[in-house]
Design brief:
18% of the residues lie in helices and 41% in strands.
Length: 202
């Protein structure tokens, strides 16, 4: 395969800096001249496909203001703790959102959610051998207060994805990825500590 050119950034203008996302405008030197691209900066996130011994997947249900409704999703969260590895963030989110911990961890898949305009990347982990966790000082707030946790058979979750009932992108990818992983006998998955080149901020 012929290597494709990389386009140098000749100027950057910051338009907005927010608590979670920021927006900047890059000028790139591309074929035929310069081009402007607006890019959303995101800290990145992790999600957890937690499967129990009965092959039920753990889903959390929470309100999403951007859509104005509640969604079934994976336990997940932003990479917003300085110095925290992606795996440690996933472990923390599983404890905080689902009250669970796991002894078996693997990378299920990596997502670049909207690479045309954002550097947001999500790493999804497969977590198995689940047990109840101790919530050490964690206090839910905002949407987390009304969050609920359920366990759904993986086959049923796949059906709900295909029916348009589960639409969160990470949940869709994680559920379908888990179904494929199960068909493969869980072989070919990457170790939990596998480097993540596309993690924002690296």
């Amino acid at each position: 395969m012929t290597a494709q050119p990389e386009y140098p950034v000749t100027a950057t203008e910051w338009i907005y800096r927010g608590r979670v996302i920021s927006l900047h405008k890059d000028t790139l030197q591309m074929d035929g001249g310069s081009a402007l691209r607006e890019i959303v900066d995101h800290p990145g996130a992790v999600g957890v496909v937690a499967l129990d011994r009965d092959e039920r997947i753990v889903l959390v249900n929470q309100y999403r203001p951007a859509l104005g409704r509640r969604l079934d999703e994976l336990p997940a969260g932003l990479l917003d703790v300085n110095g925290e590895s992606a795996l440690d963030a996933a472990r923390r989110e599983l404890v905080e959102e689902a009250g669970l911990e796991a002894t078996e961890w693997q990378v299920l898949l990596d997502l670049n959610t909207s690479p045309g305009f954002s550097d947001e990347a999500i790493r999804l982990y497969l977590a198995r051998e689940l047990s109840d966790a101790v919530l050490d000082g964690f206090v839910p707030e905002h949407e987390e207060v009304s969050m609920t946790v359920t366990r759904v058979p993986l086959t049923e979750a796949v059906q709900r994805v295909l029916a348009g009932d589960i639409t969160n992108a990470a949940a869709v990818a994680g559920i379908l990825g888990a179904e494929q992983g199960r068909r493969m006998g869980w072989t070919g998955l990457r170790p939990a500590a596998t480097p993540w080149p596309d993690r924002p901020g690296r």
